[in-house]
User: Fold Divergent polysaccharide deacetylase family protein from Chelativorans intermedius.
Amino acid sequence: MEPVGNGIDQPLGQEKARTHPLRRRLLPPGRLALLVLSLAVFGGSGAIALRERPFRDPPPPALSEPQVAGAVEAHTPREPAENKPASGAPGAAIIRVDPQAPPPGGNVVIVRDPSALGQNPRLAHLPDPALVEQSDVGPLPVRDAAGRRPFDVYARGWSGARGARIALLIGGLGISQTGTQEAISKLPSEITLAFAPLGNSLARWMRTARQEGHEVMLQVPMEPFGTPSGSTGKHMLRVAAAEEENLQKLRWMLARITNYTGIVNYTGARFTADRQAMDVLMGELGRRGLGYLDDGTSARSVAQEAALASGVPFAAGDAVIDAEGGRGAILERLDELERIARVRGFAVGTGSALTLTVDTVAAWAQEVTKRGIELVPVSAVAFDPERN
Assistant:
């Protein structure tokens, strides 16, 4: 018999069922179903979390078939970087737009013809055939059939930021072979270089300068007050000369090199003070799509008024950095440019390709950017009547 105490809690008339030892370890059916359901829910949540894009992020819309006109446009100051989408942004579209039209909103990648905006840096040493007019005196710069200007195509790009900027032009390249080589190799590419039309090996040096990233201008000798000096007299523009004579001289000088954005006066206090003479000069520059930099040495210059009347992009120098000898004097002029840039937003300086000037500017350029000032080409600070 079983002991009495073993069945004291068992209902009367019911015998205790015997359970197989293995079955004691299994969960009841209800708990087993609950466990299976929990595992299914947990597994589904994990799959959602581990997907590259959760279900709540809708798939990007299909791209319509684009009409590609060229490579994706590089950043230029006329189109700030914030208008460009991040690489791989969802919902990006590729559209074709007018190069002069304002950028549309939204996530878009703007595809433009690079030749409509500027030159490919890798081809910067090669003239754009559409911007060259063959003449008896050589290849002359000219607008193309679409209205593109050498001033735009040959301009060096810059950040487009609104901070303080300094444009610095170093002239006299081509006169001394050693000085020209040192200026091109030592100066940062943001410095604009100006070639003298009577220099040597100008085409070769222009190609080298452009390959190094420099923007290029051409110096044009103009009549000063007093007796003209040296070898510049033969080709110098003069107030008393006939209009056609000055134009012939000017075109001869313009044909010495290619791939430049405009001209800068060499001396010329008397010529730049004569409105009639300057109107002839600016009329030719405007037709050819070139800019003008006044070196700022003459307070009587009417260059700005004449340039704007002919639609010529214009800039004026604030200081000649090496008018006085010595490294200290050059640094003082560079400090002056920094003060002007911080107050006005930009400043323009000019100098010559002398060894002392080049070495001083090269060392200064390494420090000025650390002080929050951007070095830019002359074209970046020019006032352009066609765009303003």
